[in-house]
Each structure stands twice: as C-alpha cells, then as structure tokens.
Specification:
The complex is a heterotrimer of chains A (about 240), B (about 240) and C (about 475). Chain A has one domain: Rossmann fold (3-Layer(aba) Sandwich), CATH 3.40.50. Chain A contains 6 helices and 12 strands. Chain A has helices at about 20-35, 60-70, 80-90, 110-120, 130-135, 185-195; strands at about 70-75, 95-100, 125, 140-145, 145-150, 155-160, 175-180, 185, 200-205, 210, 220, 230-235. Chain B has 2 domains: about 1-115, Rossmann fold (3-Layer(aba) Sandwich), CATH 3.40.50; about 125-235, Rossmann fold, CATH 3.40.50. In chain B, the strands form 2 sheets. Chain B has a 4-stranded parallel sheet, sandwiched between helices. Chain B starts with a strand and ends in an 8-residue tail after the last helix. Chain C has 2 domains: about 5-295, Rossmann fold, CATH 3.40.50; about 390-460, no CATH class. Chain C is about 50% helix and about 10% strand. Chain C has 22 helices and 12 strands. Chain C is elongated and about 90 Å long. The chains are: A alpha/beta (about 240), B alpha/beta (about 240), C alpha/beta (about 475). At the A-C interface, helix 1, helix 6, strand 9 and strand 10 of A face helix 2, helix 3, helix 4, strand 1 and helix 5 of C.
Chain lengths: ~240, ~240, ~475
Amino acid sequence: MSTDPQPPLTAAETPGGTGPLDAFLHALRRRTEAAPHPTPLPDRSNAALRAVRPAEELAARFAAEATAAGCVVHRVTEANWLAAAKDIVGSLSARLVLVQPQPGTALTAERAAALADALATAGRSAVSKWDDDTLFNCDAAVTGVVAAIAETGTLVCVSGPAAARGASLIPPVHIALLDRTQIVGDLFDYFDRLANTGSPANINLITGPSKTADIEGILITGVHGPGVVHVLLLE
Amino acid sequence: MDVALFITCLSDTFYPRAGDAIVRVLRHFGCRVHFPAGQTCCGQPAFNSGFHRAAAVLIRRMATVFEPFTHVVTPSASCAAMVKQHGPPLLADDPGAHAASVRLAEKTWEFCTFLRDRLNVDIAAHLQAREPVTFHYPCHARSIYGLDDLRAWLSRLDVRPPARTDLCCGFGGLFAVEFPELSAAMLGDKLDELAATGARLVICNESACTLQMAGGAHRRGLPLRFKHLAELLAESLGLMEAAA
Amino acid sequence: MSRTGDLRARIAAATTDRRVVNAVHLAAWRKVDARAESFAKLPHVEALRDKAAQIRQHVIENLPRYLECFVERATALGAQVHFAPDGAAACRTIAQIAAARGLSLAVKGKSMTSEEIGLNVALEATGVRVVETDLGEFIVQIDHDRPSHIITPIIHKDRRQVARAMAREFGCPYTEDPAELTKIARRHLRDIFRRCDLGITGVNLGVAETGTLCLITNEGNGRMTITRPRVHVALLGIDKIVPRLTDLPIFLKLLARSSTGQPMGAYTTLINGPKRPDDPDGPGELHVVLLDNGRSDILTGPLREVLRCVRCGACLNACPAYRNIGGHAYSSVYPGPIGSLLSPLLYGHAYDDLARVSSLCGACRLACPVQIDIPELLVRLRALACTRQPRAKRVLLRLWQWAMQTPWAYRLGQRLMRFLPDDGGGWTRHGPGLLRAWTDTRDLPCPAVRSFRSIWENELRDEH
C-alpha cells in the first residue's frame, strides 16, 4: 500500500465544486448522459403493497410477530405493569438495572421513578446513567420505544438527549415498555411517518434478540446485543 | 393443419423415438407433418457459450429452412426458447434476416404447448402409464411452459414428484464438458432426488437433460428410464408399442 | 487465475472436498427453504420485487443526480463525505483519518466492500489493529481464512474447525457447542468494544433525499461498531443508493427474507449524521467514503443491471454450482452467480471465465429480489469475452458451425459418431479424446441405430 501523504478527499473541503468528488460527479454525468434512461421512478406510495390490513388488530399482530422473532411479550395494564417488570427483573436475578426514561416514549420520568422505587424495595439497584461501567456491568436495561411495527414485531428505539444507544444494545437483557397506541401496522406506515418528521441521529429497528447462524446455520441468540428482549405491552 | 417438425440435433441423433412419437401424435390429431431435411441445429450451444456470431449464422439458416411453413413444432422447449427469444436479437443488424427470424420465432411451438394451445388437446386426459412416474422440469423451459404446466399434464398419472421439483440436472451445454466434475456433481444431486422418489420412469422433455441424467444414472447403476412426454402420449393413444 | 485450465482444476478439486460440499449444501438448502417459507407469508411479493427492481434500475440510470443529492444531504447532517476512485484510494483515505486522529484499534462490521478493497491488510500496515466483529468474519480472521459467502462467511466450515480455531487462539477449553463458541467470541470482543476508537462498516443502502445510511445486522456487532468508537467510517459503493426514505421499507421487506428467511434482520439501523451534541453516546465523527473502484465503468457499460444488486446472497444459496464447490473455488471476494458477473467487471479479464461456471439454470434469477437476469448477463459477458477463449476451442467451434451449416457434413458427423465404442448395452464408458470430458463422469449413449431423419425417410414420410 502506498503511503503517499495525500489529504483526505472531503466534499466539505471543496467548496465551489472543484474537489475530486465534484470532478467525479461531473465526469459521471457526462459519461452517462448519452446512455438511455428508460426507467421511471415508481410512485412514492406503497399503499398497494401493504402486508398489514388497516383493520387488523395491531396489538395482537405485534405480539404474535414479536414472539415469533424471539421476544417475550407481556400484555400488561397501567395497574400491573410495575409488578410485571419487577417479576422479570426478579426472574433474572439481576442486581444492577439501567432505567432510561425518554420523552416521547411510554417510559416517562414518573414511571421510571416508580420503577426505580419498586426495584429498590426488592433489593435491586436501579441507575439512570450512561457511563461505560454501567452499560457493560448492568444486568438489564429498561427503556421506552418511540414506535413499534405490528407487521414484523419490531421495536423502534432512537437516540436523543436522554437516550443512550448502548442501553438497548450492551446489557444482556433489554426490557422495553410499549404503549399499544404506539403500534403502527405496516413497515410502510412507520417510514411514511418518519419521512414527515425530523430524524434523530440514530434510529434502531429492533426485531427480536441479537442472533447469529454463522456456525453450521444453527441459530444462537445473544451474540453482542441482548440475548433476551422482554416487551411490556401496555393496554 | 400443416406442421413442420424441428427435431433438434440431439433428438435426431440420440432420441429419434421422441420425434417418431411427435409425428404420430400430430397426425392422430389431424395435422399434416413435414420434415425439412435441411435442418440441423438452432445454434443454442454456441449462443449459451457466448459465440454469438456462430449462433447468428445458424439461426439465420433455420429461418430459411423453415420459411415455407406456417407452424414449426419441436420436442425441446430450450430450442424453442432459442428460436423465439434469443434468435431475432442476434440478427438485429440485418433487417431482412431479422424479419425472417421474427417470423420463425412467431410460428415456432414447443410440442406440448402446441397440443394444448393450438390443437386444444387435453393432454392429461389422454396420458396413461402402467407404473408410477416422476419428472424432470427443464430449467430452460421457463419461458415456454412452467412447472405447473408440466404437473398439470401429468396430473392423472401416479406422479411421485422429486422433493426439489426444479433442480437443474447440471447439463448446461458446453458447461457439461468445460467443467465436467462440477456438472457431474450437480447431476449427482439431481439423480439423488429422482432416485428417492421410488419411481423408475422419468418424464423429461429435453433430450439434453436426458443425455445427462441417463448417462449419470447408467454410470451409477440406477434403474431409471427416461421418456419424452410425446412418447408416453403416443403409447397411451395406441400409436406406438410401449418401449421397455 | 488467467487460464480456464486453472479454474477447471480448482473447481474439480472443490467438488471432491466432501466436508466443504456437505457443509455448504446443508447451510445453503436451509437458507433456500427459509427464504421460500418467509416469502410464502408475505403478500404482494412479485409486486414488491417489481418495484424494488424498478427503483434500483432507475437509480443506476440516473446515478449522478442521486449521488449529488446524497452527498449534499449527508454533509448537511454533519457527515464528512470522501470520494475514492479505487480501492487503494479508499484505504489511504481511511488510514489518514485514523492517523490524523491517533486511532489505533478499529472494529469492523461485516462488509464485502471492505473485503473488495483489502482494507484490513492496508490498515494493519499503517499500525492500526483491525478486529472483525461479525462472528463469521471473526472466525475467518483468527483462522487466517477467507470468507466463502457474502452473507455467511464461514458457510464452508463445520463446528469442529471453528472449535479448533477458538481453542488455539484463546487457549480456552475445546468445545464444539455453537452456543459456547459464540460465548467465547462474545467475551473476547466485549473487551475490544470497550476500548476501540474507530468503527468501520459497509452500508446496505444510502438514501439520497435524506443522506441517511441504512445498516442491517443480526448479531449486534454492527451496532456496537457504530456506537462505541468515537469515529465511524462507512464505506459506501457509489451504486448503493435509493432515492427516498419511503423506498427503504421495500428493500427491508425483501432483503432479510432473501438472505436468511427472517422477516427483518434483528437490527436495522438508520444513521443520520454523527452523534448530536446532547446525545450520551455514539461517534462524534461520521465519515462516508464513497467508493467507485470500477463501478462507474460498469454503469456506462453493457451490463449495468448488475449494479442493482443489494448483496443479499440469495443467488449463492440458490445456485447448484455454488452448492457443489463453495465460494473459495471462485477465487474472488464475490463468489456465486452474482460474483461471476461482478468479478470480471471489477477485477478484469483474468476473471472472465467465471461467467462460464454456470449451467444457466436460472435459479439465481428467480431468487434475486431485484430481478437481475443473471443468466442473461452471464451469456452477455461470455459473448464479450469469446474472442479471448482458447484458440483450440474457437477452432473447434468454427468446425462445428461449418458442419451445422452443411447438411451433408452434419449427416456425416452423425454417422461417424456410430464408431464410438460400445462398451456394453449401447453405452460408451470410455470416450476417446475430447469425449473423455463427458465419459470420465458419465456414460454416453451410443447414437441411435437410425437417426430420426433416416426413420423419417424410410418409414414416416409416406405413412399418412
């Protein structure tokens, strides 16, 4: 490999359209002008291709698909979600639990505080910080989600001021709180909505636990991401 | 109806019984059959192998040989596809020859689809077999007839379909001799599938696939026999003695 | 690999490696079945494939304006976009990014594009340690092997080989249990993920109208790679663009199903620039390296449809040739049907003959989510390369063509074939000369005692 000290070819460094990227694009435009362009861009709407009927019962479909993808779905109510969360944490014999409230999700500051109290009375410590030691050492993380997709049983987690990307990724167990009103039907519905709103830096569509089939095609869960994903579906 | 038979070079040389059967079946359903003796090969081996100048020469020749006829029928779907799809673009530079190749493309029929679509023959209703049959669906038939069509034609027989119904036999024209070990490995998979059905009679409408599969079966000592659907149909209609 | 002879020998050898062939058969069929099963449950599959194919074809026909738009949007989101005309330039650019910031431990998500440009070797040469984090690629790396499939890199290995590599590399107790082996890799890589400072990934698709990068992974290593380090470098082939955000779900519905039979990969990540100032974690710098490396030549050539490819790997699993030789026999980063097209186009004429390693059965075309007519393109590539075929083959071909143009020669040929030795029951077991290429592995029926034309002349013509 050559070690010529050439500067990186950065678009931002080449205002006025004189950099290598602009030169390339210019040349490419010239080279492709003569070629035929017979294929039109298809219509933006994907309505005719939907997999989920608008009338479908979304919570049931979500629960079925998420379960098929390997999640454990708990259908809970405002009255019993805390107890359910405590049971899950108890069954994991988890000691340190990251609780990450986030605006725009079902895990509001109030619910997070209530959960932290409940866990504390059960002898667990709940924390709400994102340093490496916490992320790598906690036994589980509880987060909200900004949306869920019934078609595929997918949870959507996004980055934000109070939301570490690592929370739904690094701890071995992910517990997600989802309100049934957050569920959209089709993957298309989610992207239609996304196209009409501002986007955070990082959007994760999470479908089941971390998995691999690299060794002999045998499915193993829990490689680098959580091996277990619990969904508390608030109805 | 006047019909010219395009026998194909492989059937002419190795599997003439299929041609014999086609002539008898077509006559049975009221056709006058012609056989232009100048015919040879449609150029498919050259085309698939990338030698398109040679293929163009042969397809142009084919168009001339069959020019006097209104219908051309062939036992091979892959040769029909060669004539119908790949032929005309090869002659795009020569308007006269191109027009002739388009006329040839339009009037060329694979045997089973000709029976079904032009003569309105219910193939399934006429077919009989004294034993269970299995089948090979030729990959290169895809643009001519589908796996479902083949299964429909065989639907009244005791059919034991292979588990993987559209597995390639590994022939592939020159590929079979350019990479013989690989071609034979693919053939091995195919024969495993056929042998596992328990049927001993394989309906295969491509003589090239039959050449490959029968050759492999014989080398392995598998008791498989191969027949073109036309042969079984001619036998069922009492137009031919049942072959061993 | 300049001569067909080498390729034939390599392929012949590959067919006899029973362990590899069995491993590939098993895994590829499993994926084929999983794919079929998942598509059976998806409504409007053909309409989705039509639309996906049309979108990709439209993009490659209009690439400059979509690239321009992508660059503008991604830059506005805070990404730094670099252009690399070839692999060496891309390696150089990434090495310079690392050197300028003192980055020394790079983690990598699985990226065929980085394999294509030999990035690991190039970075290691400048003192950056590169750790593959996809389980399959990790095993490839510790075993000094090469990936043999674009989605399932160790499809050619069985668990015993993985077990030996792990035990040797980490001194851990020998185990063949895939779950245990996975745990060993996880433990080892956790430590790396805590310390790494550079993350390198490929990109599944970039979105022109938003500058978004889309990454699909299953293990979580990809997410780790774009979460933990302070710098993320995304390597993006110039062809991997879709126009609109709403086009992405069409591909998401098709991609994972085509690759593994899953309705969705475990993690589909959309990246809109580097971390925002308030975000608690994530890379503060995002570099997008736009790689040409021959793609613009493909774009302006007669095989441009090949650039529709979204690297799902379905054509490899579907291919009966691939299943019987595995990926290494192709001697290219891109094996299988799509590789037999991409390799000659990206790496030159030395790879032309890969286009001949196909029976043209079309299973690849049926599996392709963007409807690339791979057999048709293989034939087109063979035609472009036919003048470079060995002279002996071209002479034989001319002779054959002459015989087929000359009915008496054709008939003479038929008669001459009757002199083939009958080794019993009408079969030739030991063909002479060139026929050995057939009879070494199969019997050849002796030509019929009477050709069809002779039956016609003597019996059929006058019968009606």
